[in-house]
Design brief:
single chain, 160 residues, mainly alpha, Arc Repressor Mutant, subunit A, WH_DNA-bd_sf, MarR family transcriptional regulator, Tscrpt_reg_MarR-type_CS, DNA binding
Length: 160
Amino acid sequence: MRDLYRMPGHLIRRMHQISVSVFAARMRAAGQDLTPVQFAALAALSAHSGVDQATLAGLIAYDRVTLGGVVDRLEAKGYLVREVSETDRRARILRLTPEGEAALDRARPVVDAVQDEMLAGLTRAERDELLRLLHKAAEAGNARSRAPLRAPQAERPAQG
């Protein structure tokens, strides 16, 4: 049997624990009340205002049902609003409020700083290579995910 501590799944889980821990500590220290998923949702909505919840879930590769709770909490904080879609009265579109944009602006420098801290111990070249390889592996496995990343139509690579 391979050594547990060298298995990719174990190491990815450990890195996730580390990244969430560092993120939470730095956000708390900065007086922010955001989780990594809440930050991702705000960032995606900032770039893609007016999408519905299912589209937002695809933009951040998150389970649609679980994202409902994230959206509820962001709405309760006053960071986003839900509006009835003009094209589908059953759908609710999401938009950041000015408070949500301000929270995102305050969080961005903290999140930027956290990225280096998560990869402490690696040189810049090693960090770049790790990120390249993680991106490659995530792209290759995207279709097997329970919550695949779904880029908006305009950002998808051309087929053919």
